[in-house]
Amino acid sequence: MARFRGEQYHHGEGERLGILLTNLGTPDAPTPSALRRYLGEFLWDRRVVEIPRAVWWLILHGIILRTRPKKSAAAYAGVWGDEGSPLLAHGRRQAKALETELNQRLPGPVSVSLAMRYGQPSIQAGLEELHAAGARRILVLPLYPQYASATTGSTFDKVTEVLRQWRWVPEVRFVHQYHDDPGYIAALASSIREHWAEHGRPRRLLMSFHGIPERGRDAGDPYFCHCHKTGRLLAEALELGSEEWQVAFQSRFGKAKWIEPYTDATLTAWGREGLEHADVVCPGFPADCLETLEEIGEENREYFEEAGGGQYHYIPALNDRADHIQALAALATRHVAGWPEAERAPDPEAAESSRRRALELGAAD
Ligand SMILES: C=CC1=C(C)c2cc3[nH]c(cc4nc(cc5[nH]c(cc1n2)c(C)c5CCC(=O)O)C(CCC(=O)O)=C4C)c(C)c3C=C
Ligand SMILES: [Fe+2]
Ligand SMILES: [Fe+2]
């Protein structure tokens, strides 16, 4: 509260549309201590692990945070680039490109800030950045095409937790999902067709999505259905026959049963069959990250090849492809309809002619 004193508000001035582009988060460095901090925050979220707190605290602090940080740090080290975590580097490029695109499409002005649900830059920092830029209307756009309680739901929790501390809450809208958005599906289909033009068409395309515990799906989380609908629309856009594609779920965590089929088991089975060429695409990850580059690009490639499979290609995420940014800009534009920064400024000529017309009509009466 103390951060926002009266003099920081500029009544009527600096009106600006703010877009908070969010993703899951990533550690600050590929080291065990940074991973312990990051995983400690992430895995303590009740929407991510739904086990009673006392029991989970003992497991998390007694076992997981003693072993996983070292293993995860080694995996992150393998994908870490000059710009740091791939998820963060792609996120920064996406935010910049989206800001440029939206300022061309809308009267604006528009500011886009990138924020992570866990770690840095935080959702609090992103919201404060937008506020400092003069944004009084904010669209929250989580980069999760498919809604899940653990991701989209949790982002909503954090945004509202931060805004609870503000005296003057901005006008806020929230994108809930865009799993069947035509622009998103078309960008995925184009990226796959381009890959095929260069590397040849595979016998089968695996569409691998991050999993969730089966319990969540059975309790009503729409995530599983959203993933399947994305998969069906993408297969239709690519005109694939039913034997040529499949949906599967990756990145299992913990001992509970997760939604099936599992990506690793599917690719192992395809390898055993002697499938000569498999491609994997991850439509639920709009930016490449550990789970795509390492888990799909490396780990699952080994499962497939060691089981006897032939060619294997991971098709990169949409990242900052122009068609992806245009799809996100179109999505954002639809969600801010009616806000002043999204409406064309009145054209003085049109306003004058409509005033004359009104006068004429009035005179005719
Ligand atoms: C795309 C949607 C995602 C869902 C749904 C999701 C659920 C979920 N994830 C975990 C556990 C972990 N996820 C981790 C990384 C990670 N997860 C997502 C996305 C979804 N997670 C992304 C984009 C990333 C990558 C971040 C990066 O920095 O590259 C990790 C950390 C890495 C590791 O140690 O393996 C864990 C752990 C659970 C329990 C869960 C529950 C529904
Ligand atoms: Fe995850
Ligand atoms: Fe391929």
From TrEMBL:
Top EC category: lyase
Keyword Zinc-finger appears in the UniProt entry: no
Annotated metabolic or biological route of this protein: Porphyrin-containing compound metabolism; protoheme biosynthesis; protoheme from protoporphyrin-IX: step 1/1
Chain positions recorded as Fe(2+) binding sites: H210, E291
One term under GO cellular component: cytoplasm
Subcellular location: Cytoplasm
Cited InterPro entries: Ferrochelatase, Ferrochelatase_AS, Ferrochelatase_C, Ferrochelatase_N
GO biological process: heme biosynthetic process
A Pfam family: Ferrochelatase
EC number: 4.98.1.1
GO molecular function: ferrochelatase activity; metal ion binding
Skewed-composition ranges (Basic and acidic residues): 341-359
Recorded catalytic activity of this chain's protein: heme b + 2 H(+) = protoporphyrin IX + Fe(2+); Fe-coproporphyrin III + 2 H(+) = coproporphyrin III + Fe(2+)
Keywords: Cytoplasm, Heme biosynthesis, Iron, Lyase, Metal-binding, Porphyrin biosynthesis
Residue numbers spanned by region Disordered: 340-365
Protein's UniProt keywords contain Cytoplasm: yes
Function recorded in the entry: Catalyzes the ferrous insertion into protoporphyrin IX.
Family: Belongs to the ferrochelatase family.
Protein name: Ferrochelatase
Organism: Thiohalospira halophila DSM 15071
Gene name linked to the record: hemH
